[in-house]
């Protein structure tokens, strides 16, 4: 017996047990991915923490040595920035609602009825994503502007004169629906693909109407895809910028416009950071609350 063992035996003390790491942390996969996980955590956390820190600086300053203040958040609450938040929220909700109506029949056809043609439709929807969003939106400007492709053709062929169809709320919603259609459609296709054909056929054999099959079988089983598509399109629409600037012509000032103005023309980075923090906190809180309310684990079948 060593001297340490004799001392422990004499004193009656027990050697301290070595603290074991959790099993999942000691797995080879986690250990191999640990450097990349650290890199991703820093790359995501560092910009967010920087923006959060700037939001507490005095307006139009860049020096952390001047102390911290809540003046920027007070300006957000006292000025008219809440109107931009409300408009962005309304346009995002309208975009999600329209995309649900537009995407469901297309997604159902791609998943159930189009067969081999679904691949060609997928290709047609994916190809525009390789072109810059701004270029595609300027294409809509050329199509909808007064004397453009649409109205110019109507004037030439039918003698109909009309003002341009852009620089209004409808044009912004059109741009949002057009740009974010794939982000709603493809998750919805995956969700509808999860519906067993046997379940719908059994319901129809038992006398269920088409509406009952949709409400009781198709909609609940496709909910994961619907939920993911709604979250993606809502978050992207809430922070959109190009649609309101190119198609809206400043007819509606969205919150992303206010953030850009604060960071660029206003040279007020603390105010822009405060607006960004509020936008991130609002959207994140809304998403977490929605996920808790819908019980995503039960929808995905992780628990009964």
Q: Give the H and E element order.
A: HHHHHHHHHHHHHHH
How can the largest sheet be summarized? Answer: none
Task: State the fourth-level CATH superfamily of the domain at 86-254.
Answer: MetI-like
Radius of gyration: 27 Å
Write a concise keyword list for the protein shown above.
single chain; 304 residues; mainly alpha; MetI-like fold; 15 helices; 71% helix
Question: Can you walk through the features of this model?
Answer:
This protein is an all-alpha fold and 304 residues long. The chain has a domain at 86-254: Orthogonal Bundle (MetI-like fold). 71% of the residues lie in helices and 0% in strands. The chain contains 15 helices and no strands. Helix 9 (197-205) runs antiparallel to helix 10 (210-221). The chain is globular, with a radius of gyration of 27 Å.
Short description:
By secondary structure, the chain is mainly alpha-helical.
What's the layout of helices and strands?
Layout (H helix, E strand, L loop, with lengths): L2 H9 L16 H27 L16 H8 L2 H33 L3 H10 L6 H12 L4 H10 L10 H25 L3 H9 L4 H12 L1 H16 L3 H6 L7 H9 L5 H26 L1 H4 L5
